[in-house]
Design brief:
Elements (H helix, E strand, L loop, with lengths): L1 H25 L6 E5 L6 H17 L3 E5 L6 H9 L6 E6 L1 H8 L11 E16 L8 H8 L5 E4 L5 H13 L4 E4 L2 H9 L5 E5 H9 L4 E5 L25 E9 L4 H16 L1 H9 L9 H22 L5
Parallel strand pairs: 1-2, 1-3, 5-6, 5-7
Antiparallel strand pairs: 3-9, 4-7, 4-8, 4-9
Helix pairs in contact: 2-9, 4-11
Length: 321
């Protein structure tokens, strides 16, 4: 009887292991994969997620869906995914704010390097300074001169975002005082178009259509070189601000403990989706560009980004609470 019991127990264990392996191998066909976007519909992060869902469906045979959970600078979505089962069916889509928030908030609710597995780095885009057409300045130096004489407000994509920190760095370097008005990412550009603020510091995706429609004037991009999408818009370094090379990047993260084989499958699918011609064209139109990257490469990138932005937050004095 003891031998029979041991044999039955062994069979049960093997079946269980086989079932687990089968479940992992079936990813992502067992149920929908939810891409939890950390910001509202229309934000740059949302645009990235929605640009990829159909391609991911085609490449994997799964069903990828977008769920926007904006609020608290992305921390609400981050907390939700942190608590989700580590099975590859809940994926966080976030911006560079993922690396910024742990130093910006007294308690962001997560450790960027311990609570998640970095899956893949998505596209990145320079930030851009724009103004309402009613502002007479045609160049960044002209805006700086005006700001020294008149009160101005600027909209950003939220406290602690690189769009906020880029303008705060400019204010310090140029010795000007422009009042910060934080918005949800999708609303910042609309605030400037409507004239609620005179200036915007945002990523490029929501700004480019408004610039091309003549509803905004572009003064400078925050990268060290000009953007191919707006070749007539100077880089901020051309005006003597040599320390700038600020980007908004986007990334995909899974809860810690997600099986490595699932992570690798998701990384491969994301890289293939981002390399497809129509997605590349879509990103290019928005001033974004993506490059293939492995799980380990994104992990190394993230390990450098977290302390880098912590230093910027400290020097700027930015706090979200």
């Amino acid at each position: 009887m003891k031998k029979l019991f041991k044999a039955m127990l062994a069979t049960t264990v093997l079946c269980g292991l086989s079932f687990q392996a089968s479940a992992q191998n079936e990813w992502p066909k067992a149920k929908p994969v939810t891409l939890v976007v950390a910001f509202a519909p229309g934000s740059s992060t949302d645009i990235v997620a929605r640009s990829l869902t159909q391609k991911l469906n085609e490449l994997t045979g799964g069903n990828f869906i977008v769920d926007n959970k904006g609020g608290a600078g992305g921390n609400i979505a981050t907390a939700q995914v942190k608590r989700a089962p580590a099975d590859g069916y809940t994926v966080l889509v976030h911006s560079v704010a993922f690396a910024v928030n742990p130093s910006l908030y007294a308690d962001a609710g997560y450790d960027a390097l311990k609570d998640f597995v970095p899956v893949a780095l998505g596209p990145k885009t320079p930030n851009i300074f724009t103004v309402n057409p009613s502002v007479s300045a045609k160049t960044l130096p002209e805006l700086i001169d005006l700001a020294k004489k008149s009160p101005f407000n600027y909209a950003s994509s939220g406290i602690g975002t690189t769009t906020h920190l880029s303008m705060e760095r400019l204010k310090t370097a140029a010795k000007i005082d422009i009042v910060h008005v934080p918005y949800q990412p999708a609303a910042a550009i609309n605030a400037v178009v409507a004239g609620h603020t005179q200036i915007a510091s945002t990523s490029m995706p929501p700004a480019v259509p408004m610039i091309k429609a003549g509803k905004l004037k572009a003064l400078a991009v925050t990268s060290a070189t000009r953007s191919p999408l707006l070749p007539d818009v100077p880089s901020i370094t051309e005006y003597g601000f040599k320390e700038f090379d600020d980007y908004t990047w986007f990334g995909f993260f899974a809860p810690a403990g997600t099986p490595p084989d699932v992570i690798n499958k998701l990384n491969a699918a994301l890289n293939k989706a981002m390399a497809s011609a129509d997605v590349v064209d879509r990103f290019t139109q928005l001033g974004m560009a993506a490059a293939p990257n492995s799980v380990s490469e994104f992990g190394s990138f993230l390990k450098a980004e977290v302390p880098k932005w912590a230093a910027v937050v400290k020097s700027s004095g930015a706090k979200a609470d």
